[in-house]
Design goal:
This protein is an alpha/beta fold. It contains eight helices and ten strands. Helices cover about 30% and strands about 20% of the residues. The protein has a six-stranded mixed β-sheet. A four-stranded antiparallel β-sheet has the order 2-1-4-5, with helices on one face. The radius of gyration is 18 Å and the shape is globular. Bound molecules: adenosine-5'-diphosphate (ADP) and magnesium ion. Adenosine-5'-diphosphate binds next to α2.
């Protein structure tokens, strides 16, 4: 059984940086992510994609969500990141109910609190490796020399420091995915979301990418969700859930 967040943090309050440096205090914080009775329907004449989803993810947890193609895994991730709105239920990120925020406020919260590794990478081919990784810091207004310092640390952490000045378009799939991971965690998000991050990689690059993701969830992010249809990949997380037409169940 998990402890419920006991704090009565006013809605909209930001979690201070001190919470991350204080693992004991983290238990008193609200869950990193909470889904309550979440449902999504794309069209009134089609059945709901899913409904009644409940989930809680606390500081330090790494969860894999598996499911067949088309069950709504990417849709679910978009809802969690505030990139799309649900039709029923609520998403709470760091205790903040996204439905109470306008689109601009959701964007600001997402930039600060969420890191996203997309299935198709979304790495910008004509930027250098270091420019790609520095992007989230630019968006948050982090200035030099702090921006370069944090970017360089991140490039080393994922093993691509020697490639810093190269253009992303010149690199292999595995190297590009390292850029995507570095970029997703460089701002130390509370929540790291990865949508089938190894779908386009050979087995050896996939294994390295999964190990790197797990290490980054445990060191640079508060909690993580890995979307995958591979059980081998899912087993690199702490626990596995399966999404199907009946909802989200332990898998
Ligand atoms: P998964 O990631 O599990 O493969 P998706 O979330 O991408 O599934 O899609 C689930 C279903 O929702 C699919 O049938 C897809 O065609 C449909 N869908 C996804 N995005 C949209 C959209 N923006 N508008 C309408 N239908 C969508
Ligand atoms: Mg998908």
């Amino acid at each position: 059984m998990r402890l419920e967040g006991g704090g009565h943090r006013p809605e909209g309050a930001l979690v201070g940086a001190g919470a991350l440096a204080d693992p004991a205090g983290a238990l008193a914080e609200p869950a990193v992510l909470r889904l309550e009775n979440l449902g999504k329907r794309y069209s009134p004449d089609r059945p709901a994609l899913f409904a009644g989803l409940d989930l809680e993810l606390r500081q330090g947890e790494y969860l894999a969500i598996m499911g067949e193609s088309g069950v709504g895994k990417s849709t679910l991730l978009n809802l969690l990141a505030g990139l799309d709105r649900p039709d029923s239920g609520r998403v709470l990120l760091e205790g903040v109910d996204l439905s109470t925020l306008n689109d601009d406020a959701v964007t600001l919260l997402r930039r600060r609190a969420v890191g996203f590794v997309f299935q198709a990478f979304h790495v910008l081919p004509y930027l250098s490796v270091e420019e790609n990784v520095a992007l989230p810091l630019d968006l948050l207004g982090v200035k030099e020399p702090e921006r370069s310092r944090r970017t360089a640390l991140m490039l080393s952490a994922v093993g691509i420091a020697p490639l810093a000045r190269r253009h992303a378009r010149e690199l292999s799939g595995g190297e590009v995915q390292r850029i995507a991971i570095a970029r997703a965690v460089v701002h130390r998000p509370r929540l790291l979301l990865a949508d089938e991050p190894t779908g386009n990689l050979d087995p050896s690059s996939a294994a390295q990418t999964l190990a790197l993701l797990r290490a980054q969830v445990k060191t640079n992010a508060g909690a993580g969700i890995l979307i995958t249809h591979s059980r081998t990949a899912a087993e690199t997380a702490d626990r596995i859930m399966v999404l199907d037409g009946d909802g989200l169940k332990p898998g």
